[in-house]
Amino acid sequence: MIRAALDAVGQLPDSEIALADTALLLARLDQPDADWRRAQKHLSQLARDCIHLRDTSGSWAEEQAQALAAMLVSRYGYSGDYETYDDLQNLNLIAVTERRRGMPIGLGIIWLHCAEVAGWDCYGINFPSHFVLGLDGDDGQILLDIFADGRVLEPEDLEGMLARIGDGRRRQKAAPALTVRMTKREVLIRLQQNISYRREQSGDLAGALRAVEDMLRFAPSDINLWQQAAGIHQQMGQIAAAVRCMGHVVELIPPGADLTRARAVMRRLRSSLN
């Protein structure tokens, strides 16, 4: 039933995806015994509060960011989990709503849910190694670090973040390409990729594969996900399944060098079946 609902999300245009509701479906798959109804009730309460925010806040992005932080951080106590950052609970929306703690992407789902209800132009930014939010208002665009209670990020903050994930010896300019708006599907994929990556790193290939397969339900045309699924199947020795996944890649990929390489991978996998 839950996976059928994700299949339905996969047929929707991006603008019609209910971000928090879809993340809640994914959380239910991950923790089937958790109290998802309480999480759903909490999301509804946040939505009601956000209607009031919309009526009492201005049209400047900084005003809207302050209103969101006052509600989510000061009133409800949401904050980044510095102590147990890599705990998978920080990526499960049910657990995030219960603990009021999360990774940047886990908290970001909550912030995006609230901003959308308020009617504000808020979106994910696929910044390397640290998910942030963009918020557009009459005063232009600002970037928010929701892991740090919604702090407004300045260019030097972004450069410092790039330096920390690079060689750490020189600061890089944050190119405009690094602050591009993400789609809702891309936000959900980043959420699940965090789960898949951590499971794979711990040796749980089956769990990593489940996360990828669930992503493919709501993003069935994502070539990278089919390639990722093929790679995990291959690691698990499931070559026939890897071939099937590469078949989807060949169907979806446009003509060119990438298609030629995909066909070559598919041939090598098929030859290993004989």
From TrEMBL:
Record domain Protein SirB1 N-terminal: where? 39-192
Pfam families named among the record's database cross-references: TPR_9 (PF13371), Transglut_core2 (PF13369)
Taxonomic superkingdom: Bacteria
Q: Which family does it belong to?
A: Belongs to the UPF0162 family.
What protein name applies here?
A: Transglutaminase family protein
